[in-house]
Design brief:
The complex is a heterodimer of chains A (390) and B (343). Chain A has helices at residues 7-23, 33-50, 68-81, 90-103, 106-117, 232-238, 246-268, 282-310, 318-341, 350-361, 372-383; strands at 2-3, 123-126, 142-146, 149-160, 167-173, 184-190, 196-201, 210-221, 225-226. Chain A has 390 residues and is an alpha+beta fold. In chain A, the strands form 2 sheets. Chain A has a 4-stranded mixed beta sheet with strand order 2-5-6-9. A 4-stranded antiparallel beta sheet of chain A has the order 3-4-8-7, with no helix packed on it. Chain B has 343 residues and is α+β, with helices and mostly antiparallel strands. In chain B, a hairpin with an 8-residue loop joins strand 6 (165-170) and strand 7. Chain B has 13 helices and 10 strands. The chains are: A alpha+beta (390), B alpha+beta (343).
């Protein structure tokens, strides 16, 4: 059991720290729309120029090819510096890009990978459908081969940033009579292709995070299929754990910063007795102390998960547990902020808005990418060996 | 290096510990009242000393096993899992305390199992000054102990049992442990060690956190095992999400407790500046995990979980005892609010 950096890793950390200090954008990230897209792409371009684009990507594809420990350091330092996350480029950098690296043709790699790294394009993920949420493999958006094209008809939903995206990693049903996990194909969809209609959906946090996407006989070249026709489920699933838990270490560091900020807020704001700072209140101090302890545990859990990856173990269900733990404590941290704000929590602008908007927006984490309930099912089945309950 | 999993050698220590406990101190022993109050452990005290349990993290020249607090934490997690008497923790702490106070002979005698210790817990205000200790105490599994380990944030002492007044047995919540009341009146300690010289109290908190993490794991395992065999409506109850999700939550809490305890052990072993913070975090999440998992385990067991004939209730009661020994949630608040610093 060891937890320490080598001298070379410490030098690397100092290098990251210095670079972030000099280059991380200081202006706040816009919450929505083209301004947010521009912000995320600009930050990616700056990382590209500094040699920090695609930190986990192999060097032969233009990535930085960092070790797992270096990736951890990168994400922790980003959180420490308050640097923006990958934002809307997360899909391109952590899923679509790695999938093209793993299964793409030389032409697909040569065209798409540099564009992602240079911050020229935004990708979205066309997975969920009105009838295929938790049960993703039951997706029905149909694709028929016609000559050298796939012709796609159907609908996707909850597609994050589809209205701002250039490309989409799209799962379609090519084998309608096969068992549901077979007969799915992973294809690169250019979002400007005729026949695509994108309708942004306003979220409860009053932004346009996600969209409905309609496909009416959309013709996608067969050359855009990644992996084999009907093998898309395997293609999609095999890169879900691409970053091997290092991103989760970064999330843990961001959460620790959030708790720091709550503590600052509790020192600034007047407490429930209307006289003393909120931190003097027993209950509030106790809640913050508990969140601090949970933040520490989240870091320990995520670092343990990365330890498994460093040892060469295949990705296990630990990351589902770490994510669920994060999602649950995040809800409580966000709620605490409202209690500290008092009646000002009723506003979603100004100083209060910095807390109330995320309170609403972060509910996403117990739903997106596998709901908390589905994650509990996975833990019960794969970690504990209980019978399948769904 | 970043590797929070046990090494091959640590794995061996763990496996040997579990094998011994499963054979010699299975939890079922506690169904027999004669085995309670540390009696089963007392019968095998020499064997426990031979296993090195009282001097795991002590240097070999005083008779210790020469391991570190990391290995000690792994062993104490298993001790928690098997509801081993707190007298074992008392011995380990007493040996470290005697050693830190410069009494090598006493440390050696404790490690060899020749002199016994028990745990003391302040029952109210406590005056702890070099010349004397004043205050009301609880004693846990200390009936045959000659020495008592007591600590505050600032210092730790070994007290002579025969110097205490008004020792009387009470009926404890956890009937598997002997609980007594006693009073110290200007009682001179056998030895006293300031936390600045050796953080005995922090070590105690860490080992209690490890035992609490073990309870959280054991409660999870028992609930899951029962959910697989108990059938209702024609299938195992674990096939119902109401039960499965309770079990998943138990797994989550146990994982958080274990991971943080290991993380804290490494910080403590390496003398890192954030050790106090990490230990407080471990005690907080482990106590919550132990109490909550033991609670859910009783619920998953249903009617039999409420009975004294099933072992589920022992885990809840022991969890409360260990949480109190670790000082309760409020004791950890200050280091948690102070934060880890620049670690």
């Amino acid at each position: 059991m060891e937890f320490g950096l080598s001298p070379a890793e410490e030098r690397f950390r100092d290098e990251v720290r210095t670079w972030l200090h000099e280059n991380a954008p200081r202006e706040p990230r816009p919450h929505d729309g083209p301004a947010m897209r521009d912000f995320d792409l600009a930050w990616q371009r700056r990382k590209y120029e500094g040699g920090w684009a695609g930190i986990a990507w192999p060097r032969e594809y233009g990535g930085r090819g960092l070790t797992l420990v270096e990736q951890m350091i990168w994400y922790e330092e980003c959180a420490r510096a308050g640097a923006p996350s990958e934002g809307a480029l997360g899909i391109a950098l952590n899923h679509a890009g790695p999938t093209v690296i793993a299964f793409g043709t030389p032409e697909q790699k040569a065209f798409h990978l540099p564009r992602i790294l240079r911050g020229e394009v935004l990708w979205c993920q066309g997975f969920s459908e009105p009838g295929a949420g938790s049960d993703l493999a039951s997706l029905r958006t149909r694709a028929v081969v016609e000559g050298d094209h796939l012709v796609v008809t159907g609908q996707k939903v909850w597609t994050s940033h589809a209205h701002l995206a250039d490309y989409q990693e799209l799962l379609v049903r090519t084998g309608p009579t096969s068992p549901k996990h077979k007969g799915i194909t992973w294809v690169i969809c250019d979002m400007r292709t005729p026949g695509i209609t994108v309708r942004p959906i306003r979220t409860m946090a009053d932004n346009h995070h996600y969209c409905e996407v309609f496909y009416d006989s959309v013709r996608i070249p067969l050359a855009n299929v990644v992996g084999r026709i009907d093998d898309g489920w395997r293609v999609a699933m095999s890169t879900l754990a691409f970053e091997r838990g290092t991103l989760a270490v970064g999330r843990a560091a961001e959460f620790a910063r959030l708790v720091d900020a709550l503590l600052d807020l509790a020192r600034e704001r007047t407490g429930p007795d209307g006289r003393r700072p909120a931190i003097r209140d027993e209950e509030i101090a106790g809640r913050i102390a508990t969140l601090r302890a949970e933040a520490a545990a989240l870091r320990a859990m995520t670092c343990e998960t990365v330890s498994r990856a460093i040892r060469g173990e295949p990705p296990g269900p630990e990351s589902a547990m770490d994510y669920l733990f994060y999602a649950e404590i995040l809800q409580r941290a966000r709620r605490l902020a409202l209690d500290l704000l008092g009646p000002e929590a009723l506003e979603t602008e100004g100083a209060a808005g910095a807390w109330t908007v995320p309170y609403l927006a972060d509910r996403m984490y117990i739903i997106a990418g596998g709901s908390a309930e589905i994650r509990r099912n996975i833990i019960a089945e794969r970690v504990l060996g209980l019978p399948r309950s769904y | 290096m970043i590797d929070l999993l046990p090494s091959a050698e640590q794995r061996q220590i763990l496996d040997a510990t579990v094998a011994f406990l499963a054979e010699r101190l299975p939890v079922e022993r506690l169904r027999d009242a004669d085995a309670a109050a540390g009696a089963a452990e007392a019968q095998q005290w020499t064997r426990l000393a031979e296993l090195g349990w009282f001097g795991l993290a002590m240097p070999e020249e005083v008779g210790g096993a020469g391991f570190t607090v990391a290995e000690e934490v792994l062993v104490h997690r298993e001790l928690g899992r098997f509801l081993v008497s707190p007298a074992v923790l008392a011995a380990a702490l007493a040996a470290q305390l005697a050693h830190a106070a410069g009494d090598a002979a006493l440390a050696q005698a404790i490690i060899r199992g020749e002199r016994r210790a028990g745990l003391a817990l302040a029952r109210g205000e406590l005056e702890l000054v070099p010349g004397a200790v004043d205050g009301d105490l609880y004693l846990a599994d200390a009936q045959t102990a000659e020495l008592l380990v007591l600590w505050t944030d600032a210092e730790a002492v070994l007290l002579p049992r025969d110097g205490l007044r008004g020792i009387s047995a009470v009926v404890p919540m956890d009937r598997t442990v002997a609980l007594e009341r006693a009073t110290a009146c200007r009682l001179a300690p056998v030895c006293l060690v300031p936390a600045a010289r050796a953080p005995i109290g922090r070590r105690a908190t860490l080992l209690l956190a490890a035992a609490l993490a073990g309870i959280a794991e054991a409660a999870r395992d028992r609930a899951v095992a029962y959910a697989k065999i108990r059938e209702q409506f024609g299938k195992p109850i674990g096939a119902f999400q109401a039960i499965a999700h309770h079990c998943a939550d138990m797994a989550l809490r146990a994982r958080a407790a274990s991971a943080q305890t290991v993380f804290a052990a490494v910080a403590e072993r390496d003398g890192r500046g954030d050790a106090a913070f990490q230990v407080a975090a471990a005690a907080t999440v482990a106590a919550e995990a132990a109490v909550w998992n033991a609670t859910l385990s009783i619920r998953v067991h249903g009617g039999i979980g409420f009975s004294a004939e099933n072992d589920a209730h022992h885990f809840l009661k022991r969890a409360h005892l260990l949480e109190m020994l670790a000082g309760g949630a409020r004791r950890h608040r200050a280091p948690l609010l102070a934060g880890p610093g620049e670690a």
